[in-house]
Amino acid sequence: xxxxxxxxxxxxxxxxxxxxxxxxxxxxxxxxxxxxxxxxxxxxxxxxxxxxxxxxxxxxxxxxxxxxxxxxxxxxxxxxxxxxxxxxxxxxxxxxxxxxxxxxxxxxxxxxxxxxxxxxx
Amino acid sequence: xxxxxxxxxxxxxxxxxxxxxxxxxxxxxxxxxxxxxxxxxxxxxxxxxxxxxxxxxxxxxxxxxxxxxxxxxxxxxxxxxxxxxxxxxxxxxxxxxxxxxxxxxxxxxxxxx
Lengths: 121, 113
Known about the structure:
By secondary structure, chain A is mostly beta strands. Helices cover 0% and strands 51% of the residues of chain A.
């Protein structure tokens, strides 16, 4: 079955760049689904960061767009997230997820377990 | 952005009783051309990622118990758990998938009374 796994540093210093990778297993990534990043600050709700289909079709939350880049590497079966100039407000559990269909406008039906990223000096 | 407002923030229900969660969007999320409401319900248990329960406001996902049901259209939606079980203790979120940025409700915590 399809599984997603986030990986990356658990601690990032303020003003630096947060970089995460989501590795997809059980499925050969191609341009058939949208793949997304969602985050959840401790004890709080969910925030959509952005979604990618391929390098030409990437959508970002405007609240983060100036600091975020999402990219995909189908040869490695991975997609990635970069958040630049982080502050304590970026401390959160970061989830990667897959859209249920090839449409951007659908539910996220498969999620990774999430990875906690703390921004602190 | 479409603002999703859930109510109540939390509720305590006796086992076997009904739980009702409301979700209101700041604008319609009904797409006229296909008559679909772009509303998703998720369940999140501690330490786990969200799990999709209901899509298109009322379509139960495969494997989801039929005690979970979704209703509503336009801007007002409801998730109902017809007979609460102990394993339903969780936080429930609604999400609009109508257009970006996708937005979630603040969550409703369901506990056993």
